[in-house]
Amino acid sequence: MILVMGSFRLPPRSIGAAQIAMARVVEGSRAEAGCIDYAYAEDVLEPGLFRVSEAWTDRAALDAHFHTPHMQAWLAERADFGITDRRVTAYEVSGEEAL
């Protein structure tokens, strides 16, 4: 399994439009083969800070994700929203444990 975790910031003026675009990419991504989970969430203590959380069955599914039309649209759109401090990392997970 591949987990993708990260964050980015949006200026207040862009949040509404960005949320519409994010909803499209989340919906499209969740429908992809190999997608276990896909979410963006605004931090409750820091408005404009968005958390990224994704889970994929394997690296091939994640790689295919970047070539989908909805992801290509998001990559083009997000530049216009003024995203800053983007830090997103993929982790290979070999097992899991319920906490």
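Second entry:
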Amino acid sequence: MVPLDPVPKPIDHCARGAADAVALIDRAGRWSFAELETAVGAVAGWLKARYPVPGERVASWLPKTRLACVLPLAVARAGLVHVPINPALRRAQVAHILADSGAIALVTQAARAGTLAAGDVPAGCTVTVDADVPLSGAGLGPQLADTDALAAILYTSGSTGRPKGVMLSHANLWLGAVSVAHYLRLDPQDRVLGVLPLSFDYGQNQLFSTWMAGAAVAPLDYLTARDVVKAVERVEATTLAGVPPLWVQLLEADWPPATAATLRRLTNSGGALTPRLVRELRARFPRADVYAMYGLTEAFRSTYLAPDLIDAHPDSMGRAIPFAEVMAVAPDGTRVVGTPGELVHAGPLVAHGYWRDPDRTAARFRPAPASAAHAGMAVWSGDTVIEGADGLFRFVGRDDEMIKSAGNRISPLDIEEAVLAGDEVRAALAMGIPDARLGQAIVVAVAGDAAQEDALRARLRTVLPSFMQPARYQWHSDLPRNANGKLDRAAIRAGVTP
């Protein structure tokens, strides 16, 4: 047993963090770290009094309110397990998560609770509206906790099948916060604009890593890119995290030069940044460092590419983040350099498996290779990567998404990057469909104007070999995305005609 204070104290280089420093900024005002501590204690005490059995699951279905920001810490302090539900999900998905997690409580808004039908809330699960949860008053102070004990279950978006709950321990969350705070070089002067869902590991970590660094987070629910621009200006944000579709939207928005200049740090995950997108981000935000990152919910995050490497290595995923051991592993279990292998992630950031799903856990969580420095369970990602002699990793593709055409194994990512390198389309997803002659033909679903197809084909003939040329494009005004803003591959594939 070790002391575990769910409100992290600033790490060594941020020792200036003080109780009266700003921890949270929203339209209601500002919270100091002392006020944040009071709120966490009050909510933890309220939860502990109602749900005294350790390990019970408490779900939340909320936008980015103050309570939503406090709950991940308060639930952990109360000895319970937090199950955050993406506010973009609807009742059927919410009902599945409540039932699958065995949640004993759901904290939500009255309007959201009103959308749930009979049978959506399991027997024995209480529903509490957010207004009834106290954010002040006497509460529960920091507690002792087993760092390997379960602290949260994060459900995947479900774009490739039934959502599965990833089990995260106190140590997983704590070390993830330390890791990100260090490699992003966050400090107490930073103000982090949190636009990503708190149910998303990337979004939730923004709370933890920001507070770990003694900095301030500004949670934001937005409807348009203009809302983000205004928020950056209002809070003087220095740091913004996003996924590629969000960057596209933000680059289309009008940015006053002084507002764009406040951003010092842009971090990307959930999809690769194209060289063109990097160039445009640098031009729009000239004072910002751009961090490209690769993550797995099952291990939080695996690699990052330092800003000073992104121009010379635009196709790289970077190197392992602190506390992660990442390797490319051949089918015989040996580590390989310079040739494709499965990305395997070992070390203390590895999650504890999938909630109540031993079969899928056994398939993805397996003993680390013998050559790994970290023994125990590792995440075998299913992603194919190449580790270079310089230690930088390059993503090739997922084994189940690789296109097999005319005897060639083709990475969809290579085709998508080539398609997006021009100005003809806004989004693209490449896939293989059955073809009697080729085995699979290459089809690309794109968002844009079909009148651009001739120009797109002409350009790709100059940059891709003949066997990688798409046989067909399927044009859309836009491509569907899941609740985390990523392209919904399953929905897009289902909509492709043979």
